[in-house]
């Protein structure tokens, strides 16, 4: 190619930035954009994490360090892999037959993808709350105590009573503590034996959070926990998430950018193709991102 041709091509490029089919500007992601440094301990670390569904490469080489006792928001356009990444953090993708995972995820430095990891124990430490509230069709009380009973932490029923080993008091304490922590106690304390399906959507979601707290987790993964709720219920969940981060590490997927800006300490932006493009303090990401694509996404130019 002659010199003039090269110049012409370059001129053409600068006139009209190349765009992907999703409307994103083409851009090379720089390693420093995702190299998030923070004070304090890291709780979860992914290294070169890849997820494939058959031939579909849903998560591409994601390395990310998640700090303890804080809220980390995962944002990005639909289909960019947020839920897939979140599910990797407690091996929920193991349940999806087509999914293949390469790379590493460590919980406090321990590899969760090594052989012999007890998945029940892992999911007890890393709990999950889903998009639509899914309480068990049981009483409010039983929704909370079901997990601890299954793990043998609470003994109840006729046999336990006959043997003098009934943990009824312990159960009452647990139910109250979890409902209080989930900011639901005052609304339900007089009807603990009513069916949970009789609660409103926002109450059901707080019950699901209370249920997740009952097994004493260290991390709470939340996939759009407020997307099905009205603004008042949403604001209750947001306040709650903020408070929970004093004692728990919260990782939350949200489509709502104002919500991410309001409740999270740090934000990770995934873009089309399952790539982590930028990760840093939430204020920095929303006010002054490094990546043009992130800037375009946040200002609503695509996605
Ligand atoms: N169980 C599955 N089987 C096959 N492909 C899947 C499965 N789950 C997700 N995918 C694919 O992986 C990619 C990422 O999906 P994922 O659900 O993680 O995106 P997302 O960012 O959570 O999107 P949304 O914002 O719409 O919830 C998509 O291309 C999707 O079609
Ligand atoms: Mg999703």
Automatic annotation (TrEMBL):
Which keywords are on file for this protein?
ATP-binding, Cell membrane, Membrane, Nucleotide-binding, Transport
Where does it sit, as one GO cellular component term? membrane
**Ranges for domain ABC transporter:** 44-298
**Superkingdom to which the source organism belongs:** Archaea
- Report the Gene3D superfamilies cross-referenced here: P-loop containing nucleotide triphosphate hydrolases
Pfam families assigned? ABC_tran
Identify the stretch(es) annotated as Disordered: 1-32
A Gene Ontology annotation in the biological process aspect, one of them, is: phosphate ion transmembrane transport
Please provide, alphabetically and separated by semicolons, the GO molecular function terms listed in this UniProt record. Answer: ATP binding; ATP hydrolysis activity; phosphate transmembrane transporter activity
What is the protein name for this chain? Phosphate ABC transporter ATP-binding protein
Q: What species is this protein from?
A: Salinigranum rubrum
Q: Which gene is transcribed and translated to give this protein?
A: pstB
């Amino acid at each position: 190619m002659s010199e003039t041709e090269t110049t012409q091509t370059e001129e053409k490029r600068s006139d009209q930035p190349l765009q992907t089919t999703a409307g994103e500007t083409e851009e090379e992601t720089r390693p420093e954009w995702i190299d998030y440094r923070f004070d304090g301990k890291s709780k979860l670390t992914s290294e070169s994490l890849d997820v494939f569904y058959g031939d579909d490469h849903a998560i591409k080489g994601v390395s990310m360090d998640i700090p303890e006792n804080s809220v980390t928001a995962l944002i990005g356009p639909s289909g960019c892999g947020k839920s897939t990444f979140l599910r990797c953090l407690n091996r929920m993708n193991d349940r999806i037959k087509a999914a293949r995972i390469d790379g590493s995820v460590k919980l406090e430095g321990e590899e969760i993808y090594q052989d012999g990891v007890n998945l029940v124990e892992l999911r007890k430490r890393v709990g999950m709350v889903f998009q639509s509230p899914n309480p068990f069709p049981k009483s409010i009380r039983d929704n909370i105590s079901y997990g601890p009973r299954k793990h043998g932490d609470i003994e109840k029923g006729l046999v336990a009573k006959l043997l003098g080993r009934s943990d009824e008091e312990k159960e009452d304490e647990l139910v109250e503590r979890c409902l209080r922590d989930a900011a639901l106690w005052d609304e339900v304390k007089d009807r603990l034996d009513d069916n949970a399906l009789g609660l409103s959507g926002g109450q059901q979601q707080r019950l699901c959070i209370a249920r997740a707290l009952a097994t004493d987790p260290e991390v709470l993964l939340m996939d759009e926990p407020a997307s099905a709720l009205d603004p008042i219920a949403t604001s209750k969940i947001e306040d709650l998430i903020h408070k929970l981060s004093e004692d728990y590490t919260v990782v939350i997927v949200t489509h709502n950018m104002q919500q991410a800006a309001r409740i999270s300490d740090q934000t990770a932006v995934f873009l089309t193709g399952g790539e982590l493009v930028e990760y840093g303090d939430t204020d920095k990401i929303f006010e002054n991102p490094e990546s043009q694509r992130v800037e375009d996404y946040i200002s609503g130019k695509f996605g």
